[in-house]
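Look over this one:
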Amino acid sequence: MAHPDDPRTLVSADWLKTHLRDPDMRVLDASWHMPDAGRDARSEYESRHIPGARFFDIDDIADARSELPHMVPEVEKFMSRLRAMGVGDGHQVVVYDSQGIFSAARVWWLFRLMGKRDVAVLDGGLPAWEAAGGAIEDLPPVIRDRHMTVSRQNQLVRDVTQVARAAKLDDHTILDARGAARFAGEVAEPRPGLRSGHIPGARNLPFAQLLNADGTMKDEAGLRAAFDAAGADLSKPVITTCGSGVTAAIINLALERIGKTDHALYDGSWSEWGMYPDLPIATGPAT
């Protein structure tokens, strides 16, 4: 059964095909790959993308002052970069990536953080678009400058101090989107220099468990079943985390899809927590 299309969370390839030529539609390719993947998302975009799509570089539209990867950019940087891409007020934005739903949700969340609500993830990403017979091109988009205003929603993001407090008080549900072996500390982190394990009290919900085999997001019943299987107490506010704040946003998107709105993302995620020897860690499966 197809998902209900919602231009503020998730839309299907067929919905985008219908609306692709709308004058206020802007499509963003937010593909990103793990550092050890050996792939160049920008060059892949330049050779093939949805017609009119702009490339959103997660590593560039980020806080260059931070040593952590792709942290939230300053408001001014976000506005100037998006304006240069021809994206601004009044636009409906659809974000996709080349893997299905992987990095696109991070950009959806970033737009929400900046107070922009008319933004959705393309369900199933580029593979779903191609499977639906969507066109592919290699032409650069035609850019027309568009003014953008931003109203940052600070309740949607958490820093390390806030997460440490939440873990200690157990007044939030912390959900970790990494795979089970990384969560349990059974394998080394892909980024060198990080300890292995997870934030004490966190529950493990690998992001793949929120997706169908074809890379699309599960329906509401499937999502609720995944949260239940992870032991997630959704009566509390939720903080999501992962390796570097990318796939955590898939959990935020899934929460929004089931109508739970009191959720935030730990921007530094394990790239930060695992770096500091004075922060407690737990290993093994969630208890």
